[in-house]
Write a structure and sequence with these properties.
This protein is an alpha+beta fold and 167 residues long. It is built from two helices and nine strands, in the order H-E-E-E-E-E-E-E-H-E-E. Strands 4-3-5-6 form a four-stranded antiparallel β-sheet, with no helix packed on it.
């Protein structure tokens, strides 16, 4: 292999490692400084033979009472109630404008403009084998949301709004 090819491979490898590190740092920043919002869950069966124990997450605010025309990507505007649980207010294409007390969370849809699936936040939560009974009581997903609408799942919460932790 020529020296030029080795240099090109090394530069590409360094760029890839740099991108992954930047992505990790961005998520860590969201976790440390993001605003916590709880979203009510509609959990699905917490088992997978290939992945191990996990819970597929479906947030109740994902559901639509009727078909509504929205763009493939945009922002779901959420307002928290007195307990900190997020309620969907509207969808909008741009991050601004926001009213006082509102949070914007990025979303995307599958399919056409009349969507069938709305994706907000993390869609699965992996946990240690044998802990499925503990996490089957989850009522809320705790998302940390930054000012740009990016979200990271912090953990699952029970009906008393307490984070579920390993025993």
């Amino acid at each position: 292999m020529s020296k030029t090819k080795r240099i090109i491979i090394l530069v590409n490898l360094l760029l890839l490692i740099g991108y992954f590190n930047w992505s990790i740092m961005a998520k860590e920043k969201t976790l440390s400084s993001g605003h916590l919002v709880l979203l009510e869950l509609a959990p699905v069966d917490p088992r997978s033979l290939i992945q191990g124990d996990y819970m597929r997450l479906n947030y109740k605010i994902n559901g639509m009472p009727e078909k509504q025309q929205i763009t493939k990507r945009g922002y779901c505007i959420i307002k928290q109630d007195a307990k900190g649980v997020g309620q969907r207010i509207r969808f909008q294409d741009e991050l601004q404008p926001l009213q006082p007390g509102e949070l914007a969370v990025k979303y995307f849809t599958n399919g056409n403009r009349y969507f069938t699936t709305l994706h907000i936040g993390a869609e699965s939560f992996l946990f240690e084998e044998g802990q499925d009974k503990l996490f089957s009581n989850a009522e809320y997903g705790g998302l940390k949301v930054d000012d740009a609408g990016n979200s990271v799942l912090e953990g699952l919460y029970d009906e008393h709004l307490q984070m579920i932790k390993y025993k």
